Automatic annotation (TrEMBL):
Membrane topology of the entry: Multi-pass membrane protein
Residue ranges of domain ABC transporter in the record: 365-605
Superkingdom of origin: Bacteria
Species for this entry: Mucilaginibacter galii
PROSITE patterns: ABC_TM1F, ABC_TRANSPORTER_1, ABC_TRANSPORTER_2
UniProt subcellular location: Cell membrane
Signal peptide stretch: none
Record keywords: ATP-binding, Cell membrane, Membrane, Nucleotide-binding, Transmembrane, Transmembrane helix, Transport
Gene3D superfamilies: ABC transporter type 1, transmembrane domain, P-loop containing nucleotide triphosphate hydrolases
Gene coding for it: msbA
Record GO cellular component, one term: plasma membrane
One MF term in the entry's GO annotations: ATP binding
Protein name: ABC transporter ATP-binding protein
InterPro entries according to UniProt: AAA+_ATPase, ABC1_TM_dom, ABC1_TM_sf, ABC_transporter-like_ATP-bd, ABC_transporter-like_CS, P-loop_NTPase, Type_1_exporter
Amino acid sequence: MRQPQNKINTKDLTLRQRLAALSNLPAFFKLAWQSSPSKTLLSFILRLLRSAMPVALLYVGKLIVDEVVLLNRNTSFDNHNYLWQLVALEFILAIVTDALNRLINLTDSLLGDLFSNYTSVKIMQHAATLDLDQFEDSVFYDKLERARQQTIGRTMLLTQVMSQVQDMISMAFLITGLIAFNAWLIALLVIAILPAFLGESHFNNQNYALSRSQTPERRELDYLRYLGASDETAKEIKIFNLAGFVIDRFETLSDKFYTDNSKLAVRRSAWGSFFSMLGSTGYYAAYVFIIVKTVDGKLSVGDLTFLAGSFRQLRALMESVLSRFTSVSQGAIYLDDFLDFFKIKPRITIASKPLPFPNPIKQGFTFENVGFQYHNSQAWANRYLNFTLHPGEKLSLVGENGAGKTTLVKLLARLYEPTEGRILLDSIDLRDYAIEELRLNLGIIFQDYIRYQMTLSQNIAVGNIAEINNKVLIEKSAQESLADALAQKLPNQYDQWLGRRFNDGIELSGGEWQKVALARAYMKDAQVLILDEPTAALDARAEYEVFQRFAEMTQGKSAVLISHRFSTARMADRIMVLDKGQIIEIGTHEELLSKNGRYAELFYLQAKGYQ
Ligand SMILES: Nc1ncnc2c1ncn2[C@@H]1O[C@H](COP(=O)(O)OP(=O)(O)OP(=O)(O)O)[C@@H](O)[C@H]1O
């Protein structure tokens, strides 16, 4: 489990930073536009129309009141046409307002869905371009996690920013009306609301900092939730009786979360009530001012309703704009993580003018003094590697756990870049070839291959996804890896869903899964095949057969085999013995036995176990 990172000082976030975060909004709107230009435009137009409605309704209301008062005073004047026209107009405005609200909600929710899908796809697309070691870095991982988690937050932000613009335009209309009567009313309004805004902003800062500092723990909570209740973990949790341990850890963490969050929520609520009281005081002061002017005859009764209504609405709008500002700017700060994620570039060198990949390979892969350190480790996982994998050669890698066998293979596949030294292919630096071509020419099955919760046929086709519809090739690959016999036993054969997660899937045994994974290696005509402990879960007969076939299949091709079974390892042309990341012996089985070194020692040790 990764350790807590990215602690943020709660005082770090100032109003200036919030305002600065708003500069993320143009990039954000560009994304909204890309996800649906027509709906973004429609939403904007609808909101523009909607923003004029409050002042229009209030003004028509004022005209109605003034007309009623006039008709009341002059009872002789019995033409009520103008009054009914005004009432009809207000009725139409009310209906249009309601229709606009519904249309805005509809557009927002449709646009929100499109936007959320679009950004999720963008995250996946970008993640696919990044290097393996970037995924293994916890700072990066936290960033990815936050970018992914905030999909819903981002969709809400979109609606909030749009509503913000709408409310601000509504306010501009209302303020114009108020200023026409008395500018002081505006000053009173600002004084009443400013403290509430500053208070909101302060507490939102604290909320953001708290939730950001909790990211690693939240990930741990998710992990514990998965450990405690999932089909994949249930077996070990029961056998080791781990439920109590996992639940205790979950409770400790979630209690801490609750305490931290509730302290902040209580303080926020207390201050919020105080600030809201200030707001009400400001509103009533203005109300008294308008009433006095109306009683003095300086304003009409219609003016009174218009001004009081404008003031009330303006106050509500200003409060929501200000409090929304803090959540908009907070959302905009979260956008930093999202936009930063897209700024992360893969570190692995991409050849600008890649050379054509040799086919056939003539001289092979040469490691020249290659060394590699994992970025989070001082130790060398591989060092001073000097050897050539010749074309058509079968090379076995043996060595104790952690000797650096898998790392060597990952370097060959350019999942990592050597920390020192270089790898050549046909005397040219491997970095000068296109990475996709290299991977196309390598067929690799790792020991921790994925058990895809998909159909058998899809599970095999992942070895060469371009051939997903090539049933003949899929079945041929299955025959090579002995997975065909398994397919015949399954109710739906190649269309059988594997794993228990979906659609009446069937779970396979470890060895059966391994046969399925091995079939992936045969899906393409790769020049080099790499099998990292491919037979560990196979029974003795299956292992023998798999290797018979492997030898036939790989005739003329290079192959690298990683195995702890010496009966497998000795089938190779040469054997490389690794220890603490370095090559300590390399040669044929006979050469190494006669050398009487580490290989001979380990070989006889294992042979003795079988006697
Ligand atoms: N992602 C990683 N981050 C940091 N260190 C790693 C990582 N993967 C492996 N290592 C370290 O690198 C060293 C070599 O590991 P590697 O997986 O290459 O060994 P191996 O010979 O394949 O072992 P095994 O036989 O157990 O599969 C080990 O000390 C291991 O702890």
